[in-house]
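Design job #97: recover the sequence.
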């Protein structure tokens, strides 16, 4: 039985027309609560590492750009909460492929913890030398998040980054957007902020140059 709590057809139509969509209460309350518990447990076990920018040999920790810590879900894939999340996200991938023909083949994702004061400066999610990342996913785990706590994702809607929306990181909200099209940033969080961030990837994404 699907754990999705929204109309997939509407989401696909919105992605087709706008390239992004925000879905409150996207997954069941049980999945959201269990993921939050799992995230906090592995955080307390010290399994996270400081997030880096770039990829492969070009990876580096640049605290002036981002200051969160992450744990890739494939490292804790046996956790029931992670398995349930992955199953729900696979349902989305199959539907998006049917509706938009994006050729998505997998989801890579990680828990992200932003300690108090952490942020992520404006960036695109697609690497310059690899265009496999196609559709970005952000799923929030923060219960009763106060607006004054910051931590919103700011999604820029135009090429000049003049028009934007701020999305509150409230538990159960799912954000989807095309990875190569939308600049975005995470505003400084004034309390601990939890999410699952990921990218649906297509096969053979290495660019020819």
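Job complete. Output follows.
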């Amino acid at each position: 039985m699907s754990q999705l709590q929204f109309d997939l057809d509407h989401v696909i139509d919105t992605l087709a027309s706008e390239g992004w969509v925000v879905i409150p209460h996207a997954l069941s309350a049980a999945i959201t609560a269990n993921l939050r518990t799992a995230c906090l447990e592995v955080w307390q076990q010290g399994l996270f590492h400081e997030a880096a920018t770039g990829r492969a040999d070009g990876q580096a920790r640049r605290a002036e750009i981002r200051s969160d810590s992450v744990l890739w879900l494939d490292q804790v894939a046996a956790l029931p909460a992670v398995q349930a999340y992955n199953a729900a996200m696979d349902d989305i991938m199959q539907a998006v492929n049917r509706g938009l023909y994006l050729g998505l083949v997998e989801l890579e994702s990680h828990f992200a913890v932003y300690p108090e004061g952490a942020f992520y400066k404006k960036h695109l999610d697609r690497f310059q030398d690899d265009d496999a990342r196609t559709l970005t996913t952000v799923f929030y785990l923060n219960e009763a998040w106060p607006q004054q706590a910051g931590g919103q994702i700011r999604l820029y809607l135009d090429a000049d980054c003049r028009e934007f929306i701020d999305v509150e990181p409230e538990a159960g909200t799912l954000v989807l957007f095309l990875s190569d099209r939308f600049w975005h940033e995470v505003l400084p969080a004034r309390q601990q902020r939890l999410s699952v961030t990921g990218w649906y990837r297509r096969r053979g994404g290495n660019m020819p140059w």
